[in-house]
Amino acid sequence: MTTARAGSRARTRQAILDAAFEVLARNPAASLGDVAAAADVGRTTLHRYFPERSDLLVALRDEATARLDQARTRARTADDTGAAAIRRLCQEYFDLGDLLSLLFREQVELDDESPGTCDDWFADLVRRGHADGTIDTELPAIWVQSLLWSQLYLGWSFLSEANASRHETLRLVLRCVEGAIRPLR
Amino acid sequence: MTTARAGSRARTRQAILDAAFEVLARNPAASLGDVAAAADVGRTTLHRYFPERSDLLVALRDEATARLDQARTRARTADDTGAAAIRRLCQEYFDLGDLLSLLFREQVELDDESPGTCDDWFADLVRRGHADGTIDTELPAIWVQSLLWSQLYLGWSFLSEANASRHETLRLVLRCVEGAIRPLR
DNA sequence: CCATAATGGAACACTGTTGTTCCAGAATGG
DNA sequence: CCATTCTGGAACAACAGTGTTCCATTATGG
């Protein structure tokens, strides 16, 4: 009985989330009316799915967390040298698009990492890079993590403003991240 | 007659601007009441100096432009190699503090440079670096400029969140900018 | 075809911000 | 000491965003 009903609900919900990502990434101060309009949905309907603004933000956070985890899995961060793993991670994260802006501007806060804290798995990754000589030992893990995010955000906003190709922009990001973290000479 | 009067006015005005930099850098959506409170000034007084919110933003933009120009002059961007000049520029800009956040988040837009456009003097600087071999020729000037800003913002937010020393943070910024822009191998 | 679910519009109260006016008190220069 | 200036609090209307309720309309499964 709930087959197509539930399907419809899920689809509407997803449409709202997708629109929210897009709208809030461009303008963090956008109103719920803007989000509803972008999702082609009445404001009433939006409130039916997400009673309060905070409910929407929580849902966005969960969605973001899930996608980040998927990207990390795809990047196989446990393989190869530290730098190579970071390079793959960079590529996977880059495809997340609007998510980057939201997370970077801390519109949507991830629960497991307060600002100034580094993910454990990422810290391990950097340590591996320190050990195998592909990441400068002078750079702390938390710094490398911040650097990665800032470069991804840079790439994404570059893509939006300048009319550069996605491919070329990704190349620049990878090039600069690699140069920034590898040991000098 | 207007000696101390004008002095007082200038002092109040400056206090408001300083507070606005600080408050808006931390929270771009801060209300005028917040700014007034931070400046230890009644909201009425704030409106007396800056009738509308936009007037305050214009004043902030002018102040920012002036300080940026001063920093650029101090950095003597016409001397040395391209990379060395960028390094000095980085050092000078880094000291601008809250200004960085505001400019980077585009709360305050500079008039002479629309997003996606590169300052002429900066483009020349990068070209010089391309020619003297200290900046990778694969990196376009506009990208280097964006990179510089994103790294400065990174450094500044790192300073706020992590409890790192100003000196150490600047070292990390300079280290990573240099690594990012110099030619590989 | 019909009952149920989903939707969107209209209207409402509530809140916080903005910009304004008015006035009384404090500070300052002469 | 007095006149001028600067200040800040109170009160106000206007406005935008939020969250809610109610109702009519549209789909959809059975």
Automatic annotation (TrEMBL), chains A, B:
**Gene3D superfamilies in UniProt:** Tetracycline Repressor, domain 2
Q: Which Pfam families match?
A: TetR_N
Claim: Ribosomal protein is one of the keywords in the record = no
Which keywords does this chain's UniProt record carry?
A: DNA-binding, Transcription, Transcription regulation
For this protein, the DNA-binding region equals 31-50
The residue ranges of the HTH tetR-type domain are 10-68
Q: What is the superkingdom listed in this entry's lineage?
A: Bacteria
Concerning PANTHER family, the annotation shows: HTH-TYPE TRANSCRIPTIONAL REGULATOR BETI, HTH-TYPE TRANSCRIPTIONAL REGULATOR RUTR
Question: What is the protein name stated in its UniProt record?
Answer: TetR/AcrR family transcriptional regulator
Report the source organism: Actinoplanes aureus
The taxonomic lineage of its organism, from the top, reads: Bacteria, Bacillati, Actinomycetota, Actinomycetes, Micromonosporales
